[in-house]
Design goal:
Length: 451
Amino acid sequence: MALVADAGGSADIAAGRLPPEELKANFGDLHPPLDVHEARVEAERCYFCYDAPCQQACPTAIDIPLFIREIANANPLGAAKTILDSNILGGMCARVCPTEELCEEACVREAAEGKPVKIGHLQRYAVDAQMATGKHPYARAAATGKKVAVVGAGPAGLACAHALSVAGHDVVVYDARPKIAGLNEYGIAAYKTPDDFAAREAAFILSVGGIEIKTGVALGRDIALETLAKEYDAVFLGLGLPGVNKLGLPGEDTLKNVEDAVAFIADLRQAKDLSRLPIGRRVVVIGGGMTAVDAAVQSKRLGAELVTIAYRRGVEDMKASPYERELAQTNGVNIRPWARPIGLEGHDGVVSGVVFERTRLVDGKLVADGAPFRLEADVVFTAIGQTGAGDLFGATPPKMQGGKIAIDAERRTSLAKVWAGGDCVVGGLDLTVAAVEDGKRAARSIIAALA
């Protein structure tokens, strides 16, 4: 991504809007970790429920009461093992999963007093303790002689590869990008995972052994699914969603500074010096999900003065959680609901504003309501969803539905020897923890099939 100013100078684009020390603080840890005393005190708040609702709410079914009891008994490594048995990416999930809508929302203390046990913080405390030892808590079984290809090194792919390796299978992971970890590396706000955590967690997972990584290799370009199915005993597809939706407005592909929010977040995550990363003074983000919030908040933390999230429906309809919406607002982001983009304006080939129409619901349908309005913008980020990749599979694709791969309960596709999981499949929840569960379940099915 390369933001530019127009020839007339009306697009206010600049790097280094904030001093380095402020940038460092802005992109530091959003939630500092608990110390030993804080973790013990928080763990003691747990009621250790039988048939705990928090565990039922966890997509990976972590035994939450057990790991919290282990922390309360000064056994963080035991707690980490309990977590990792169910979710090998427990460290990342503790940082980025919407616990306020999953385990913590189900917490009995949340229902009783509006203050749940800080399950995410405690999970991070335990897994960080394990990673700090520099040791991997699992050992590989005897080699089976079987070899599995995993396409995509995101959460689903890494979870699948790890489980397969522990079972004694050799795994080769292919990924199109130069670094592994998928959206954990490229698509999450930097202040949620500072200190290169995504890479460190990936290295921790790979340290079990038996997993070969091949980066810069893309399905449909460098490798074919049909070839993989012939050369390997099984294939797992954890492709994510490589495409992005378009606004469908004139000028979207020709005006400069109209950018995909996912690409902006990826550039920011890979930037070695944030003081060199340009941002506009006036930023408009179109969309209502987590990506929109991450792009908006990070724009503000880079020094943008006026940042607006525009969403075509009401605030309560946004896919971003209430916590994320509050985070945006407390960072100075303005959320403008009931606003549908209908035009892009530019000057000398550079975007200068977005025209919106006000909307409202009539009999469940979104309709225009009143005169259009305009928001000035030096930069426009689009965050209106990602799309699948049905054109990557060659002459014999798996069964698709709505641009995503159809799977059964065991994550099998319609093709023999091919499984899939994560955002690329029908029913994918766009959550790291859900992708991990897909990878884990697929691995179990593959292990059973190869046995």
